[in-house]
Design a protein that fits this description.
Elements: H1 3-44
Length: about 60
């Protein structure tokens, strides 16, 4: 293999690695954002503290 083809091959490999890392970072950021949104949603959810305290049972 000549030097030119080897150089092109190496640059393509480096580009593929850079793109893969970039996509993983985007995926991680999206996951963190989703987790933060879910946490905020859970915190702001209206919870009735009296719900579930009494259980009416009829036989």
């Amino acid at each position: 293999m000549d030097i030119g083809a080897l150089s092109v091959s190496m640059h393509q490999s480096a580009l593929q690695d850079a793109v893969g890392i970039s996509l993983l970072k985007m995926s991680m950021d999206t996951g963190k954002e989703n987790a933060n949104n879910m946490t905020k949603m859970i915190e702001t959810c209206a919870i009735d503290p009296n719900r579930g305290q009494l259980l009416d049972v009829k036989v």
